Amino acid sequence: MKDFDHLMSVWQEQPKKDQLSVDDVLKQVKKGMSGLSRKLFWNITSMAISLAGIFVVMVFFVFNSWVTYLGISIILLTMILYVIMMVRDYRIINKQDITIDPASYLQDLKEYQKNRAKVYGGLYYLYVCLISGGLLLYFYEVLQSASTMFKIIAYTLTTSWLLFCTFYLKGRFVKNEQDKLNLIIDRLIRLQNQFD
Predict the structure, then answer these.
(1) pTM above 0.85?
(2) Where do the structural domains in the chain lie, given as residue ranges?
(3) What is the number of other CB atoms lying within 10 angstroms of the CB of residue 51?
(4) Is the dihedral of CA 177, 180, 186, 192 positive or negative?
(5) How do the pLDDT tens digits run along the chain, 196 residues long?
(6) DSSP states of the chain
């Protein structure tokens, strides 16, 4: 009998798993997804405004060389493809309510995370290369009559900005977004395991 009492006391002293409140988790997930959604919406909006500005330059400014138009076209097409990818991601985030089908929502969220990692992997470098190539072609005519010092400054500033965005800002942005997604996915998985 003593063994049974001892076993019972050991069993009762084991730490209990934290039980998550469904309402708290749903509020946190909705808040987190709302923040990601809002950020993506403003990214799409700013890219659309930039696209409109670049399109206006292409249509209303007269350039002598076809190389300049080619550069602007490369920039426009690259930005359009990037906007299409962001709109697709925005739709994945906003297409359904978590309370209707949590398992499907979790699967879509994992798909979104995988796609974003892919986008910020190799595709981001392709994006930067295409934008850089388009800018070089654009600068070919635009900076043709500029002084050598101005050309050096323009190319240096543009290259520095692209390198800064690629190797510093991109890393911070990706880490921040991945951390938020991991936290949301972890909460949903813990909640799902609680009911399994």
Answers:
(1) no
(2) 38-195
(3) 16
(4) negative
(5) 556 666 556 555 655 555 666 677 777 778 888 888 898 899 999 999 999 999 999 899 888 989 999 999 999 999 999 899 889 888 877 776 666 667 777 787 887 788 777 777 778 888 889 999 999 999 988 888 889 999 999 999 999 998 898 888 888 888 888 888 888 888 778 777 766 5
(6) -HHHHHHHHHHHHSPPPPPPPHHHHHHHHHHHHHHHHHHHHHHHHHHHHHHHHHHHHHHHS--S-HHHHHHHHHHHHHHHHHHHHHHHHHHHHHSS-TTT-HHHHHHHHHHHHHHHHHIIIIIHHHHHHHHHHHHHHHHHHHTTTS-HHHHHHHHHHHHHHHHHIIIIIHHHHHHHHHHHHHHHHHHHHHHHHHH-
